[in-house]
Amino acid sequence: MLKLNGMELLFTQFPNGETKMDERSIDIAFIPGAQNNLIFKYKNDSDLIKLLFVKKYLDLKKAYVHLTITFMPYSQMDRSENGSAVTLKYTADFINDMMFDEILVIEPHSDMTIGLLEAATPRFITHDLLPIVINEVEFNIDSDYLFFPDAGAQKRYGKIWPGVKQLVGYKVRDFVTSEIKSLEVVGELPQSPNLHKIIIVDDLSMRGGTFFESGKKLKALGFNEVYLVVGHCLNIVYEGELLKDDSPIKKIFTTNTVIDSSTHANLNVFDWERL
Question: Which domains does the chain have, with CATH numbers?
Answer without folding.
Answer: 2-123 (3.40.50.2020), 126-274 (3.40.50.2020)
